[in-house]
Design goal:
(Mediterranean fruit fly) hypothetical protein; Leucine-rich Repeat Variant; 0% strand; 104 residues; 76% helix; mainly alpha; ARM-like; Symplekin/Pta1
Length: 104
């Protein structure tokens, strides 16, 4: 019986380690993409926002709160396509996580 409990604890720790590593990898990619946004062309900015959206809403929703302000600040971009992409991102946030609607 102890072997089963010990194995269960080990598996739980392994799952946590994998989850932490997955989140850390996602965070580093999102940071890289958001750092590339200010110097990019308008179409590239939109592509980067789509990547950020897919990463955060698709696999690491826990990163949303961390990067929400950075994403919302792009709503003031000079290019209309970038602003439209931010609006689409906001719509998807509300669909995935309704609790964030009051922050938007």
């Amino acid at each position: 019986m102890d072997g089963l409990l010990g194995r269960s604890q080990f598996l739980g720790e392994a799952v946590n380690l994998f989850t932490d590593e997955k989140t850390a990898n996602a965070r580093s990619k999102v940071v890289e993409w958001l750092n590339d946004v200010p110097n990019a062309e308008a179409s590239t900015k939109c592509d980067l926002l789509v990547k950020v959206q897919e990463m955060i809403l698709g696999s690491c929703v826990e990163l949303l709160e961390e990067f929400l302000e950075h994403i919302l600040s792009l709503a003031h971009d000079a290019n209309a396509d970038v602003r439209k992409q931010v609006v689409c991102f906001i719509e998807q946030i509300c669909k995935v996580k309704w609790s964030y609607s009051h922050k938007l």
